[in-house]
Structure formats: structure tokens, C-alpha cells
Specification:
Structural class: alpha+beta
Number of strands: 17
Order of helices and strands: HHHEEEEEEEEEEHEEEEEEEH
Strand content: over 45%
Radius of gyration: 21 Å
Shape: globular
Distance between the termini: 52 Å
Strand order of the largest sheet: 5-4-8-2-1-11-14-13
Helix content: 10-25%
Length: about 260
């Protein structure tokens, strides 16, 4: 038995070393590529926000996000966003009182509110940390913030004619056990916005449009959001209508995808 346990331990350590080797090889390739391109800001952002490592760190937290309702406005000409994110969390123990979220430091937080009151917090090196003494096992936290994306990353960017955003790069991140998500995305006319879930509402103003999406079932993540001006192709089948939205300057042909 001792030999088996040692073999399993050696296998586990070997597996971890392989993962570390792959990770640092990826970093090496990434550094080489982006130094050649001179994109130092993006390199810095990558080194500051290694999301795989953060995911492992936050998986050890004693609370998780159960529900998320956020209002996001995109400002294409400034490559910026403003957001009000309301999360409902559930903690494992009543005595837990230290809470930690990840949010890139490019975003400036206006305030964080719990139970109608602003709380003290620290936002440094992309980590938000605060204390909340309460016997409640579940409560809501409201984050209000805004900021600009300094450069185009592998996952998120905002251009004058389009935007693609990853939730973990623009929303306060912690371990998630999502049971409900609602996204309200405000974009300038004539843009459209898409998110995971069902389109609940579309509100058209004089110079902007708000798209409201809802997911009312368990999911691991709300994923990506995309917005811009699209060309659309549809195919009606026995199970319903399939529509593909493509940016106007994309060279991809929608027909092969519709005929899958």
C-alpha cells in the first residue's frame, strides 16, 4: 500500500510539473511574440492577470457567487465601460468575514455597497478585498466602477466599430456557482449586443439601445459579450430559426456554419 501511495504521489507531482512547464512555456512564447510586436502594455496585463492561477486561488475561497445582475454601458470612442454589478453570494460559514474579488486595476471603483451602505475596501494589484461582519449566510454586494481597456487582449477589446468582452476581465471575479444571471448592455445606435441567455427586452432611446438578457438556470459562467454592427444570415429548420451574426468586414462565410 505504501508503494502504491508513493507511486500515486509521484504521478501527481509529475503531472503538476508538466502543467507548470506548459504554463511557463506559454508565457515564454507569449513574451517573445509581444516583445517583437512592441505591445508592452498587453504583456504587462497578461503577467498581472494570469486567470488560470487566479481561478485556482479563488477556488479556495469560502464563498461563491450565486446570482449576478449587471448593467454595462459600452463607450466605443473611449474604449471604455461603466458598470453596476450586483452579486448575491453564499458563504460556507457564518463567521467568515473577509471577502476577495478580482477586478483589473484599470477599472476605478466608485463604491461598493452592502445592505444599502457603502463599505470600506482595498483595490490593489487587481484584487478587491473587504471585511463584512454579518451572521448572514447569503447577501448582496453592489460594485460600481468604470474604466478603459488600455489595449487589445486575447479575450477582450473595444474598437470604434465593435466590442468583444470576457466576463472575467470586466466583472468582479470570484468562485461562481451561478443560478441566475441578468445582463443589461447599453450600446450606441445602430449597434446590437449579444450575451448568453434569452433576450428579455430591447429598449431603444434617441441615441442608444439597451439589450437585456437572462439565464434562469445553473451555468458555470456568463461567458462573452459582443456588440457592434453585424450582417445577419438565417436558416429556418424544423426545430426553429438559426441566425448567425457576423461583423461586416469579416471574411468568413456563414453558409457552411448554417448547413452544419
Amino acid at each position: 500500500r505504501s508503494i502504491n501511495r508513493n507511486n500515486k504521489l509521484c504521478h501527481h507531482i509529475h503531472h503538476r510539473l508538466l502543467l507548470c512547464n506548459y504554463f511557463f512555456q506559454d508565457v515564454k512564447n507569449f513574451v517573445k511574440e509581444f516583445f517583437l510586436k512592441g505591445q508592452l502594455l498587453l504583456l504587462a496585463a497578461f503577467l498581472i492577470f494570469p486567470f488560470d492561477i487566479l481561478a485556482q486561488e479563488f477556488s479556495r475561497e469560502s464563498f461563491s457567487i450565486l446570482e449576478r445582475r449587471f448593467s454595462l454601458q459600452i463607450f466605443p470612442t473611449e474604449s471604455s465601460i461603466s458598470c453596476i454589478d450586483t452579486v448575491t453570494i453564499s458563504k460556507a460559514k457564518r463567521e467568515d468575514n473577509i471577502f476577495k474579488f478580482q477586478l483589473p486595476s484599470v477599472f476605478k471603483i466608485s463604491n461598493i455597497e452592502i445592505n444599502g451602505k457603502n463599505i470600506d475596501y482595498k483595490h490593489s494589484q487587481s484584487i478587491i478585498i473587504f471585511r463584512h461582519d454579518s451572521g448572514e449566510l447569503s447577501f448582496r454586494i453592489i460594485f460600481v466602477y468604470m474604466g478603459s481597456l488600455p489595449s487589445r487582449s486575447e479575450f477582450s477589446y473595444i474598437l470604434p466599430e465593435r466590442a468583444i468582452l470576457r466576463d472575467e476581465e470586466i466583472l468582479p471575479y470570484a468562485r461562481k456557482n451561478l443560478r441566475y444571471t441578468r445582463a443589461s448592455i447599453k450600446v450606441p445606435k445602430p449597434w446590437q449586443a449579444f450575451a448568453a441567455g434569452n433576450l428579455l427586452n430591447k429598449v431603444i432611446d434617441e441615441d442608444s439601445t439597451i439589450f437585456v438578457y437572462e439565464i434562469d438556470q445553473p451555468v458555470n459562467t456568463s461567458g462573452w459579450f459582443t456588440a457592434g454592427v453585424f450582417r445577419s444570415d438565417s436558416l429556418t429548420t424544423e426545430i426553429g430559426t438559426i441566425t448567425i451574426h457576423i461583423f461586416p468586414d469579416d471574411t468568413i462565410d456563414s453558409d457552411p456554419m448554417l448547413n452544419l
